[in-house]
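[job 0412] stage=fold_complex status=start
inputs:
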Amino acid sequence: MSAMPQQYVVADPGSIHTGVEVLQSDEHKHAPERYPLSQVDFERVKTPFIIGVWILSASIAKIGFHMTPKLHLIFPESCLLIVVGVVIGVVLFFGTNVGVSPLTPNTFFFYMLPPIILDAGYFMPNRLFFDNLGTILLMAVVGTIFNIATIGGSLWACGQTGIFGSPEDAPKFLDIFLFASLISAVDPVAVLAVFEEIHVNEILYIVVFGESLLNDAVTVVMYHMMEVYNEMGLNNIIVQDVISGVGSFFVVALGGTVIGIIWGFLTGLVTRFTDHVRVIEPIFIFVMAYLAYLNAEIFHMSGIMAITFCGITMKNYVESNISQKSHTTVKYALKMLSSSSETIIFMFLGVATVDKGHDWNTWFVVLTIVFCSVYRVIGVIILSALANRFRLHKLSRVDQFVMSYGGLRGAVAFALVLLIDEGLVPQKNMFVTTTIAVIYFTVFVQGITIKPLVKILNVKRASKRKPTMNERIHERFMDHLMAGIEDIVGKTGNYNVRDKFKRFDNRFIRPLLIRDLKGAEPKIIETYSKLTMRDAIEVMRRNPSTIGQITGTESMSALFRNYTNNCIGGSPSLTNLDNTCSRNLDMHELDYNPSKKDLTDAKIHHLLAEELKPYRRVSSKMISTFYNKVKKK
Amino acid sequence: MVLFGDTRMLQIVTPNQIERLYSRFTSLDRGDCGTLSRDDFLRIPELAINPLCERIVHAFFEESTEDRVNFRQFMNVLAHFRPINNKKENKLNSLAFKMYDLDDDGVISRDELLSILHMMVGANISQDQLISIAERTILEADLCCQGKISFEDFCKALERTDVEQKMSIRFLN
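[job 0412] stage=fold_complex status=done
writing structure:
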């Protein structure tokens, strides 16, 4: 007891203790200070406050770009954010003594990367991804290894000529490869940021983007391997180390994937039971995906792959379990989180550029940029020639060009280069500077030019839209048809595998994870209810008064609720299994006892039909006359 | 109705592929009589549980007068699914359309669409729901307001889908 008051006296009350403690201690010893009218205690809120200011300034910067008339059309957003970051960095550097880079590897990997990757994984077009999985894996695994080997080898060879300084100063063999392994990987954040804006066609997009997600496994393994080799020293490496290195690639990649899938299924299972507490539904999606990421990181597996596959897996099951509102929340929260972390990453990248410790080595920088670009092109050409032997949709020259040009480097490389231990790698500062230079080159030069290039080369653009009813049905029809034809031909192809998985999914997984099963083709029903919902809202918006008049007794909102409920599947007709026995296709023979609700529904249905018809007629006439004109010409 | 002349088909399908398909054909042909019956098709385990099994098998027998198909007819149907390089051909749609259009009157009626939906969506959905889905689908595609989907409507509805891509398989050499 006696030591305690003394300690309080010695301690500086302003910096360490909170006001309450100071008051208490003072009461014991001294004459009581008067109760302060106000206090300034910045230390206590420093960290969250600074984080808040960062987010605020990044978001304001973002608003600024979109308000400027021309700027955001010429530059990708990421470039502008880096520029703002540099400006802030300069101000901080000369104006204050803060000087510390806010982009530490830990904040990056634990807090800023996961939202972006989860967003990517959750909204991944699954079908497209799995259709092109072969090409993506080829590019991600073989392509990245090819790049590491060639870039590392060439840089090392150049180093031997003494071009980077005297041979003693030049980085050692393993140091170079450590650097090559972090600079070779295409960065998902940068690729997303640039490709989201230019809207290239979906196949091109998924190949580049899928590559950037999946090459994380290679990067993690190679980086870790080189790090360990570096500690061991070049002479102590035996064959066993190399073999375990190769083996660990499979462990890292498959382990991350499996962890992700398991967490994805668990999320599906948990959301099955959330129908009583709708408000916490989004929490499960975020937290469980994040836990998947951390869980993979615990075992030094690929967290990026874990969270990607977690998103891919959970999506189908979660979407049919959670309410429409929760779904909207998830969608917007994910978009918001990912876009703000993307914004902050690019800004931090700019801030981190302004630093004392730079070590600029012109030849090293120039050669790294040249090798990165050249080997990327060579790798893409070789690998797409290989892939084209097996692909139905061949990758054209233009596609290959965009693929190699879209190989942007970004913050993952920067965070990894910061992780290098300076004691082991004396050239760390040179590597950091070079990495920043490469990132700037790819984000600025390639990022700015890719948009006009895509226009000049006439790359097919994507048209983002919801599928129509016809497309949904006919496409499913074709899937079944193709699966059947593949069975007849006796070839195990994409359709065949998908068909088998769907059947397995429908029989075993879906009944386990989904609360109320909506038949074998949930997508068709989903599209249907989405479209009807949209129509209903449209009608409501156009002339709400008519509905009010027609219904008479019932209120508009009640009617609307009835109607949408019916479409979305809350109605008993959906879950009613007895109905299915009447497979009579002749509709006149079905006996029909309309209840009051049915009558209201019918009214709405007619209303909708009438509301929609005129539109249809006009548009169809226009189309047909247009068609005829074209034909005549 | 023969959609492809034999010579044309041979141009597109390489001898290797024909050879491979022929070996598949003979392995399907349990009775060793050079032709396939419906039962031969239905013996393929995965095909038998395909919801569209009936229609697919039916497509093979459409051109033949008997209830058996020979290798040439077999190939003629499969040739629809070879990957094509020039975009001019739009024949692929017609086969799919004919699989909907059971009575061969050139339009997909509501009942025809409904029966396909029934096969695909399965038993958990009420008939009313399916009907409204079918009606909605027809309303959406039907440009001539006749309550049916004609072939032109069908093509139009799928013009944003890469049908050539979706309906092609690589026959392994």
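[job 0412] summary: Chain B has two domains: 15-81, 89-163.
[job 0412] exit 0
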